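Researcher: Please translate sequence to structure tokens.
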Amino acid sequence: MDRPTEELPAQPWEPGRHRRPARQRRDLRPLLSAAFGGVAGLGLFLLVHRGLADDAYITLSFARNLALHGEWAVTPGLPSNTATSPLYVLVLAAVAVFVRSPLVALGIVLAASTAVISLALTAVARRSGWAWWAGPLAVALLVSSPLMAATVGLESFLLLALLAALLWALQGQRTVIAGLLCGLVVLCRPDAGVFAVAAAAAVFVAAWPDARRAIGRVVAMAGLAVAVLIPWATASVVMFGSPIPDTLAWKTAQTQGLAGTHYHTAILLFLDRWTSATTLTLTLVVIGIIALLGWIQLAPAHPATILIGGGAVTHAVVMSMLDVPPFAWYYAPVVAGSVILAALGAAALLPRRRGMPRFGIAFGVPLVLIAAGASSFVYAHQWQQAIPFHANYATAAEYAAIAAVIPDGATVETAHGEIGAIAFFCADRCRAVDPLSDPGRLAPVIEQQLEKPGPGGAVLRVLYRKWSPSEPAPAQLRTVSTGPDGPGFPIWSGFGGPGHLNFERT
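Model: Translation complete:
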């Protein structure tokens, strides 16, 4: 016979005795990191959106025409293959469909990019047992950097968001995500393919010494990256006859550079023309080099060392070999890579226990000072409505005034060398043409590049085998530079000083 179950004696209720178990406190640090990144990006946009680089307005024109008219074009009615970053145009256009303004879309995408950068770097730091504020510190340095401010409107911050997410995926050995992100990195900027190669190297090192596993992961990641690229490459061949943007032929044909200097020879020129901005930028790069040397010594196999450090160095070497002009945004991967390595290094050096090592103080204090100094510099430049490293012939406001007097329905050839802002402010009222907006005007340059001997010309001939030249669009007016004392509209350049721009009939 079973023993009867004994009933528990009734117990009087006492305060706190029957309280529900306390809920685990939610960690708000990732949310705070993302929020800080988004607010910082939005603040940078509000600071510089009136004085973007002329090339940024080319991208904005692409996004506006795609969102509002369904055309891949700088100038309505002239489809062109000169968007260096197809992914960035697609992202901007997708947002512009809803907000109906490419400039507002730019602010949203910039804020989202800096939020992702901060969140991803915070996740990387926390997974490694470092201080969580690595992400916010990196974003603070990025948005206050004069050079990074000069890239607003271009794809640099979107590229950095992809690289930060790729670093997070590599650290967690998420091969599928890493492969997809590698494809997006190349779609964001073709020359950023060096970072995809660096990511493959990081995957290989992480899986070594199991050679079969290492090779299998690299092949899988490469296959996923190619799968991401195939749709756009196919569409580009169908529409334009080439899977790559025509800007490759255009930029490599600009052998004159900027005042005779190129990517690897422009430091002295920059120091002479933009002393404060260049000094602040070089200081960050020097700190980044020191950080990279530390990463190589202490954690050579860490994904940050291989992807960010190795990728940035390789990118600088490749751009130097291509002998491209020294545009500010070409230096963004090196500067941003320096910032990321320095921020992660600082987070690793500063322990969570009380007290701070002397080396940590010596490492962290300069970063804070640079952030403060660069912020002041960026803010001061906004009064001139021009970004730091402003090398365009005129400010955006001056180009807007020039575009306002172009007759309705007229087509103007921007023969003075810049089209972005004039095309953007013309909108649907008038048309601006030059080699970057009119395939007919770019055709002679492409033909010249295709005739080059050597492996470079051979590769281009393969890529452009479906391409055929077209006739240039007729124009009624042409812009001409008339110098400081000439007739026309007054313009100002941070590089060349004051001048005038006028129209002549073609």
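Researcher: Any highlights?
Model: Strands lie at 73-75, 78-79, 411-413, 431-433, 477-481, 489-493, 497-505.
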